[in-house]
Amino acid sequence: MGVSLAQKMLSAVTGSVLTSLLVTPLDVVRVRLQSQAHTPALSAPSSRLYTPLPLPLTQFRDLPPNLGISACCREVFWINNNAQYCVAGPTMAPLNPSDAACAVEEVERRTINSTWDGLRKIAQNEGPRTLWRGLSPTLVMAVPANVIYFAGYDWLRTSHQSPFQMTVADAYIPLVAGATARILAAVAVSPIEMFRTRMQAAHHAPTAAGHFRETMDGMREMIASQGVRSLWRGLTLTLWRDVPFSAIYWWGYESGRNVLTDIRGRSEARHDGFEFRVGHGEEKIRRRSRSRSREDHTATMVDSFIAGAASGAVAAFVTTPFDVGKTRQQVVKHASDAVKNAAPRPEDRSMPRFLWHIFQEQGASGLFRGWTARCLKVAPACAIMISSYEIGKKMANDINERREQIRNGA
Where are the annotated Solcar repeats, by residue (predicted)? Predict the structure, then answer.
């Protein structure tokens, strides 16, 4: 007796909740790293730390973006709600070197340089609870997304009614089924993911309720000016990231599980004094299926955890440039009319042109910014999610078999 769709959905929900609780802090750091303005370090106090007013707003963009916010500043201007500028008014005397050092020291205190640096600084400057900011929308997004994703993948990969059973070679069904399931899930939850990403990137409001209101106000302004379709802004980049990720992940996961199953089969055969043969085609599939049905829960968890972590890490690294592009496009906010009319925003470009802009501006390091945080988050997330899902399905299958035995015995 197989596992029902409802049982697969319950397994996906359980894995989603557990994964979200454990990896949300790394996701917060990843978003901050990728949405953080590109700020070359100042080696010495600069005379450009102060600018007399009045000046056209467009000239503020030429100031160093890493001046920081501190008591040194008379006025603070937020350009595009992203890069902060410390500007001295006309009545202020030129800043002395100690004031300049104050501004530089402040930005260094808040600039995130690495994953662990981000975890430490966010916890110190904004409180440990900030590391779980966006958990509610993460759960709201992860539960339906993973139900659609995992249950859909299982059906597309194993069901006789799947359109891929007769049209795709067995070796490539995981790749095609994973990509298709991800498209369906991404379209369904894209608005929730945009809300979560913008909420995690925000760092202006002093309270969690303030962050929520700030994000909601930004979303309402966006819908009012650009329409409901703007909720799916970045979906193209999301698909460019998630579709190849899912294809690579599921292909790698199924291959990894098969390798681990074969290794376990050889070990058991040697222990029992039998010759182990891999077999071919349908025979290989049936043998692996029998081997996995005899596995205990520990073996299932270990194999799925290892295969999920390894495949997830590789897929996460390869698709990091698309993740950077998606994050920057979704967290961009409306600039003032003066800035917006001066030049189009890079985030408004098509996906290939936008990624090319990032490469020209920051090089390959810009395209792979936050890859460590992404891999550290995705690898354990994939491992926890898939092992929880597989264990849940195995427990459900065991329950179904016991019920069937009781029913037949009666």
Answer: 3-159, 169-259, 299-395
pTM of the full structure:
0.64
Residues 228 and 320 in one domain: yes
Both 250 and 189 in one domain: the answer is yes
- With beta carbons less than 8 A apart as the criterion, state whether 157 and 174 touch: yes
Question: In this structure, is residue 116 part of a structural domain?
Answer: no
- Two tokens, residue 66: 């890493």
- Which tens digits make up the pLDDT trace of 182-236? 999 988 888 887 787 777 666 565 566 777 788 888 888 888 888 888 888 767 7
Nearest of 185, 217, 220, 214 to residue 200 by alpha carbon: 214
- What crossing angle do the helices spanning 115-126 and 371-409 adopt, rounded to 10°? 90
Q: Do residue 20 and residue 157 come from a single domain?
A: yes
Within a domain: 235: yes
Q: DSSP readout, 163-190?
A: TTTTTS-GGGHHHHHHHHHHHHHHHHHH
Cα distance between residue 237 and residue 231, in whole Å: 13
Interatomic CA distance for residues 246 and 239, integer angstroms: 10
Last residue of a domain, one of 111, 137, 153: 111
Q: Residue 131 corresponds to which tokens in the numbers above?
A: 């590391």
Q: What are phi and psi of 280, to 5 degrees?
A: -140, 150
71 lies in the same domain as 184:
no
d(CA 374, CA 194): 17
Tell me the C-alpha distance between 90 and 50, whole Å: 10
What total number of domains does the chain contain? 2
Mark whether 196 and 322 lie in a shared domain: yes
